[in-house]
Amino acid sequence: MTSARIAVLVHREHGFRRRGYLLEEIGMIWREQDIELSVLHGPGESSADALILHVDLTRVPASYLTFAERFPVVINGKVADISKRLVSRNIVNEHDDWDGPVIVKTDSNCGGMTAAPSLNRYPRYAEAITSRLPSRWSKRSTLRAYHIFDSISRVPRGVWNNPNLIVERFLAERRNEQYCLRTWLFMGEEERIAIFYSNNPIVKSVNIIGRDVITEVPQDLREMRRELGFDFGKFDFAIVDGKTVLFDANRTPTIGAIPREQYRPWLGKLASGISALLPRSA
Questions:
Q1: Domains along the chain?
Q2: Fewer beta carbons under 10 A from the terminal one: N or C of the chain?
Q3: pTM here?
């Protein structure tokens, strides 16, 4: 790969190093290849061949998007909004005729914990306070855990009155007694696809009991990526009754609890995907 200068734009109130971001690990590989990598904490003076929009918020502030326009190439420049209402195809309302289980989530990613850094410095305490209020569902802006209900009729009234929350059909992929979650990591044309197994209906890195590498990405999921404008990121999805179910689209993926020795061997190939995204002269 020829030498290039890449700037990573993060929110001024967020760190970058040692936060477990996948891009930090990829950046280490790029530096070994003599690619110059700089981290910008908010808009400021900078020049580079390409800018990676790595703002860990559901909606990127307009000032950051305007600043990004200065650069010849903006990776994920079209991904300004990753809210569930934009990404999900499975949202229901209280009058839908869906008769299966449902799950309550925040419209914002990460349970709403990073939605407003300057106003949400103590989400743990805010959650503890609102959970004790009589009308707690109508007041909540964050959820430390998503909640599954047997049916739409079981969803508390306050959920429907809260614009911070959404209700989705609970669609789970199963293998025997285990729940499955598929993840698609991609950088340009390079990709990594895996399926994870858990005994928990909400599969997280902390409750995974097994994993397999797979190779097939559904064509309709590739089309979703194109529609959402992603150059780099991670999609969490499942295959239920032969149909693709997209759970989450993330432009700032993290490593989670996966041991380094498990992801380091294939990370170089993923990192090489930057070549197709850089200007040809870089």
A1: 5-82 (3.40.50), 91-169 (no CATH), 173-273 (3.30.470.20)
A2: N
A3: 0.89
